[in-house]
Structure formats: structure tokens, C-alpha cells
Amino acid sequence: MARTVDPARHLARRMQIIDAALTRFAEDGFDRATTTAICRAAGIGSGTFFHYFPTKLAVLLAVLDLGTAETGRWFAAQHGRDDAARVITDYVGHHADECADPRVAGFVRAVGAVAGDPDVAAALERDERTVHEGLLPWVRKAVADGQIRADQPSGRLAVWIEVLLDGYLGRIAGQDRFDAVAEKAMLLDAVSRLLKP
Predict the structure, then answer these.
(1) Which site from 41, 86, 116, 152 is most exposed, i.e. has the minimal number of CB atoms within 10 Å?
(2) Intra-chain end-to-end CA distance of the chain, in Å
(3) Are the beta carbons of 89 and 192 closer than 8 angstroms?
(4) Domain boundaries in the chain?
């Protein structure tokens, strides 16, 4: 008789492994983070790890996909809001709050080490597309409502918001002295200035 799988328990174990992998990638880098170290951090055996993920790269992709799905859910949860400019500001703040996780800098560097892998490149492209497709309708609405500048196409404004967000993330990954929490207000100010009518 086949063993019954409890979906909630299965998901919880998967998330436990993903969280441990995120920590190990952040602290050790991709190459030095071993499946043994991930298993130790997750409190599991290697058989359990390989039941959920066939390779170390597969769990890194799962971390990326989880972030992309979270971004999609964040934008979906904004449905029905009227103040488009506030949604944009809220997303920028949300992004900054996500970047405040002390593991983010190391994880970004770990991803950079394997960014040339076709699967990683595709995952990063999906994430970029999710952010763009999430922002663009709100930028269009904010322009139409006269809340933000209308002298540039909405798509270009959305891309420049993304440039600021990417630069912020890149600076966090590239410099230990850049404090995501302390610089959040400056990021919000930069986006506000970019969009000012």
C-alpha cells in the first residue's frame, strides 16, 4: 500500500530545506555550500534532501522561484486599491524590507556565481518580468490619475523604478557598509523624485 503524503507536512519540510539552503548559500557562496551543510542546517538526512531536490542547483532555483511567486502574490493582493502611487511606494518599501534580511547580500552573490546557467538565467528573467508586469499597471494608473509624471511613457518609468530597485539590491550585495535599513528612506525618496509630476 502506498504511503499517504500529508501536503502541509510536505510543504513545511520543503520550506525548511529552502530556508536552510538560503542561509548556506548566503554564508558560504554557491560553490562552497554543500548539500551536507544544507542538510545539517535543515536538521535532515541527505536522503530527505534528495527526495525534495535532485541537486544543489535545484534548491537554489527553488529559492528564486519562491521569491518570484511571493512578488506575484504581493501585487495580486493590491487588487482593488485606488491610490496607484501609494501602491508603487508600498512596493518599493516592501522591496527594501525584503533586502533587509541579512542573508540577501550573500545570496545575491551566490546567484551571481551561477547566473550564466541557463536555468538560473531563466529564473532571473521570470522574476524581472514578474516585477515589471506587477508595477506597470500601477504606473499607468498613477499617470492616468495625474499622480506621477506623464512626460515619459509608463513602461519607461516602470523600468527606471526597477533600475533603482536593482541598484539598491546590487549595492547591498556589493558593499558590507551599505545598510539596507538605514538607506530605505533614501530609496523611497529617489523613487519619489523620479516620479514627481
Answers:
(1) 116
(2) 67
(3) yes
(4) 61-195
